[in-house]
Amino acid sequence: MITIEHLTKFIGIQKDPILHDVNFQFHKGEMIAIVGSSGSGKSTLLQCLSLNQKWDQGSFNVDGVDVLKLGFMGKQKIKKEWAYLEQSPEFNPKRTALKNVIIGQRGQTPWWRRLSGTVRSDDYMGAMDVIESLGLLEKAHFKMGQLSGGERQRIAISRALVHGAKVILADEPVVGLDPKSAESVLEQLRTLCKEERVTVLTVIPLDLAERYGSRIIGLSKGEIVFDVKGRRLTQREKSLI
């Protein structure tokens, strides 16, 4: 179980709260859709959970351990297991999808390996298995520039999984994608939750949240205004965000 208590994040000289006293719990295998208007704190929430931004207040308990009290190595382990996926994932355009998956992002592999592009045979087969599970085996040897936006997002998910991700924090992973590609990405994320017990927290539009989320959390002005499971939102709930 993961428990977030009293998460507060300030911004600016005036220390205005962009997140204020956020509290919730979640379990393995959940697909949590986060919704809210621009500036509600959605992206900041994911960045705090990935430890890409410092918490000003709060506790972050994973299986009874407060992550915020861990040392450098403990936090690095959490960063590896809690993969933050940006709207436009960064890749080396000169390398294939497979090599981008294996070599990983900055901080996931040694600098010399990132520079040389060295690939071990055991890494190769493991990455191919993951890429195949996400329906892109035929694109594994394509350069990244040859892939569509939806395919790039699925390669980003593959990369996170190959490097040990247990939780995926996806910040608007379908922005700019055509409807079919967006559905493909979200279907893959939902399948990972159901079959691999990966946990997903994702910022997506409300209509997609109702279709794909097993749970929907609404944010407004940095506070949770609703947290519903297994159903669509009521009109009153929609009016809160």
From TrEMBL:
Residues in ABC transporter domain copies: 2-241
Keywords on record: ATP-binding, Cell membrane, Membrane, Nucleotide-binding, Translocase, Transport
Gene3D superfamilies listed in its UniProt record: P-loop containing nucleotide triphosphate hydrolases
GO molecular function: ATP binding; ATP hydrolysis activity
Pfam family name, one: ABC_tran
InterPro entries: AAA+_ATPase (IPR003593), ABC_transporter-like_ATP-bd (IPR003439), ABC_transporter-like_CS (IPR017871), MetN_ABC_transporter-like (IPR050086), P-loop_NTPase (IPR027417)
Keyword Iron found: no
Keyword Repeat: no
Domain of life according to the entry: Bacteria
Protein name: Phosphonate ABC transporter ATP-binding protein
Native organism: Paenibacillus crassostreae
